[in-house]
Amino acid sequence: MNTIIIDDEPLARSIVKEYLQSYEEIKIVAECNDGFEGLKAIQQHEPDLIFLDIQMPKINGFEMLELIETPPSVIFTTAFDEFAIKAFESNAVDYLLKPFSKDRFDKAVQKYLQQKKASPQKTEAILESAAQSPVQQNRVVVKDGSKIKIIPVNQIQYLEAADDYVKIFTAEGSFLKKKTMSYFEQSLQSFQFARTHRSYIVNTQLITRIDPYEKDSHILLLSTGAKLPVSKAGYSKLKDVLGI
Amino acid sequence: MVAAESNRKLLLLNLSWWIVVSLIHAFILSQSALTVNEILIDTLVSFGLLGGICFLIVNNMRYYLPQREKYWYILFISLSVSGFCSVMSKFLLKLLMGGNALYMQEMHQTTGIRFGIGFLLVSCIAMMSLLWYNQEEQKQMDARKIEAEQLAREAELYKLRQQLQPHFLFNSLNSISALTASHPEKARHMINQLSEFLRGTLKKDEKQWNSLAEEMQYLELYLEIEKVRFGYRLRTDISCEDAALELKLPAMLLQPVVENAIKFGLYDTTGEVLIKVAAKKQDNSLKVEVENPFDPETSQPLKGTGFGLPSIQRRLFLLFARQDLLSVHKEDNHFITTILIPQNI
Predict the structure, then answer these.
(1) What ipTM goes with this model?
(2) Which residue of A122, A196, B162, B287 has the fewest C-beta atoms within 10 A of its own C-beta?
(3) Full-prediction pTM beyond 0.90?
C-alpha cells in the first residue's frame, strides 16, 4: 500500500513519517513540498492514500485535488483554517488538526484501513464547500496539458458547457474544467457573471451590445468579438445583473 | 445633573443680578418724593420676593430641565411668578405701609409697570439659566463622548496588537512536536523562543512605544521560529541604520507586517524566498521597508496585499490620525511594504 505526504513544512512531513513507522504495510513513495509536486507524484505513483496539508504555496490542497481525475483517499492535515474545518465537519472525512497525537493519527489510519477507499462523493462534497472560501472564490485552477494554470476570476470572458466539462474562455485561450454549469453559475454570481443561456455563462463587464434575435431570444456581443446566444430566461437574468 | 460648583456660580450670578436691579430701582425711587425708609421697604419687598422665587426656579432647573417646549415653559413660569409676586408684594406693602397715602397712591399708579418689569427680569433670568444648564449638560455629554471614544480606541488598539495568527501558533507547536523525537534539544530551544514571543504579544500596554532595537530583537525571535518551520525555503536579510536604532515605534507593529510578507512570499511562490527588512532614519521619521517576492502571473494586482495590512493601516490611523503612513508598491517581482513612523510625539 503506497502513500504520499504533501506538506510545505519539512517538520510537519517528518512527524507523519515518524508516525507511519509503525505501519509496515504502508510505504511512503514520495514527499512533496507543494501542490504542483504533489500532483506530479500522484500521477506518477498512483498512491492509495495521501496525507495532504491545506495551506500550501500557489495552489492549496483542495485545488490540487480538483485537478486529479480519480483522487486517492485523503487524510487532511491542517493547523487552522476555518473554511477547511467547516468543509470537513459537514462531510465527515477524516482530518488531523496539527499538532496531533499518535493516538489520533492511528485512529485516522485505522478508519482508512477499514473503509479502504473513502467514497468519492464525500471528497467532492468537501471540495464544493471549500470552494466557497475567500481564497478559492476569486480564482479557478485548471490543468493546461502538463502545466497548472491559475485563472483570476476577472480574467474569465465566458464559459461554455461541454459535456461533463466546462470550457473556460480567457484572453490566453480556453481551458477545460470538470465541473457543472450550475456550479459555476453559483460560484461566479457575486462577480458580475450571468448565465445567459443553458450552455453559456458570461462576464457581463465585457458585454458591448445586446441585439434582438428571432422570437424571444437575443444575441450579445462581447468586447472580444465573441457572439453568444441569450435565451428568454437568460435575458431576464442578464437584466437583473446589469440592473436594467 | 450639573456639578455643584457650577451651580453655585449660577446662583451667585443670580444674586448679584437682583442686587444690581434693586439698586437701580432704589435709585429711580429716590428721584421721587419718597423717604429713605419707604424706598428701602419697597425695594426689599418687591425684589426680595422676586429674587427668592427666582432662586427656587433656578435651583429647580438644576434637577429638571424642560427639553421640549422649553420656551413655553419659561413664558408660563415667568408670567405666573411675576403675577404672583405683584399680588404678594402689593399685599405686603399695603400691610406695612397702609397708612401712607402718598406712597399708596404712587404704588397704585405703578402696579402695571412693576408687573411688566418683574416679568422681564424673571424671564431674563430663567432664560439665562436655561441656556446655562443646557450648555453645562452639553459640556458633560461631550466629555463623556470623548472619554468613550478614547476607551473604544484603546480597546481597538489592544485588540489589533493582540491579533495572533492561530495558524502560526499551531504550526509552530506541530514543528515542536516533530522535533521532540528527532532533536529534543532543538525542540526545547524552540519552546523557549515561542514562549518568549508569546510573552511579548501578551504584554499589556504598560509600554506602548519601543525602540527599534527592542522591536528588532523581537522580530528576530519570530523569524527564527518561522525558519525552523519552513527550513531552507525561508531566508531573511535585515539591515538597520545605526541612527535608526534608537527611534521609537509602536510595540508589535512590525511583526505582523513581516508575517504578512512571509505568508505572501511563501504561499505565492515555490522555492526559496528572501524577505528583506530595512530600517532607516528619514527626515524626522523612522522608515521601514519590508520586501517579499511574488509571482506577477498569479497574484492579482494590489488585491494580493491582503492578509494583515488593513489592520496595520487601522492601527497607524488610530495612533497618528494619518492614512498615508503605510504604502505598498511593486518592483519587478518584488512587493515592498513601506511604513513611516513620525518621531515628534
Answers:
(1) 0.76
(2) B162
(3) no
